[in-house]
Amino acid sequence: MSMHDVIRGLLEPAKTKIVLLVADGLGGLPIEPGGKTELETARTPNLDALATEGTVGLSTPVAPGITPGSGPGHLGLFGFDPLQHDIGRGVLEALGIGVEVGPNDVAIRGNFCTIDAEGRVTDRRAGRIPTEVCEKLVEKLRVIKIDGVEVLVEPVREYRLVVRFRGEGLGDAVADTDPLSTGLHTLAPKATDPGSEKTAKVAAEFLRQAKEILKNESPANFLMMRGFAKFPQIATMEEAYGLKAAAIAVYPMYRGLAKLVGMTVVDPGKTIQDQFEVAKQNWDKYDFFFIHYKYTDSTGEDGNFAKKVEVIEALDAALPALRALNPDVLIVTGDHSTPSRMKSHSFHPVPTLLWAPATSRPDLVTTFGERPALQGGLGQFLAKDLMPLALAHAGRLQKFGA
What we know:
By secondary structure, the protein is an alpha/beta fold. The protein has 2 domains: 3-86 and 233-393, 3-Layer(aba) Sandwich (Alkaline Phosphatase, subunit A); 92-229, no CATH class. The chain has helices at 3-10, 38-41, 45-53, 70-77, 89-96, 131-141, 197-214, 237-241, 252-260, 272-281, 295-301, 305-323, 370-374, 386-393; strands at 18-23, 55-60, 105-115, 121-123, 150-157, 160-166, 222-229, 245-248, 264-265, 288-293, 329-333, 350-355, 379-382. The strands form 2 sheets. It has an 8-stranded mixed sheet, sandwiched between helices. Strands 3, 4, 5, 6 and 7 form a 5-stranded antiparallel sheet that branches. The longest helix has 19 residues, at 305-323. The model has no long low-confidence stretch (mean pLDDT 95).
């Protein structure tokens, strides 16, 4: 019996509200040995107050030592075991911008890139071209035709786009064409199982035509394909937990993740203050609110320690508006760690705070950070175990057994 089977048997109606605030890539590392992390360095009086009144710990997104992508990291926070639900990024990007993905479809995330005269990649993100440039380039790519397959191309944001192939006999076991480093040629699409050979050939033909179309563009004169994916079979938040859930996320991929598990995606505005205001406006319509904050991740990937501290402080400063809604359960955590020192996602556990005024068992921790979290009452746990805790603190689970 799975944990979801257990939970479904224990669910009981309640009018309580749960908020999951995900500061993407929240966890960090000290720049110098013995120093403080970004979260420990930041001035966070509101998070510290929640930590004092609630309970803290460290969550492991997938498994010890495994560095998660954003998809697995969020699925774990939504209570789905990432090791059992391998979700391709193409589907997430497609859903995030409202592109339908059906049973005969393969969705792919595209990255515009820059290549030199010999075909070597000189910039994997084409200088982070503006979204309006991406839209113009996508319009040019829409002339691509491939026999026996319907091709859809849509812009996402900056250098990112979505490609969808629709047709019979398409599998999604195709390796990415991104070499993951500059100075190398892009890779040919390669099927990793016999059922995906057709997809690999279609992708190769798409890239052949795209290269010709983009050859005189600058800086985005080619593209790479990543995350070939078909739509997975996965329960919705309502099926799994009896929750009517809303997602308030600015970036398309995270809206896609939310749609994947049946959340209603609402217009988030542009700032974290806007997002909290949107939660207020929709407070009576939903039981569960997933609020996503991107900038703790992007500053970490840029290697900008000071800027990551700054965006953590900005999040903290906005928190009183969220707390004023009086959620029954408020969880603050990240989907993974993104230390500025590493400029990438990492395997390190993520500081996690659970605040539930009616049911929290306070620990001795009075500040929110990586080292204080080591002493917290939540201990160290797998991220997928957070949702059962949220449901229990929200009074939504009956007793198990006689």
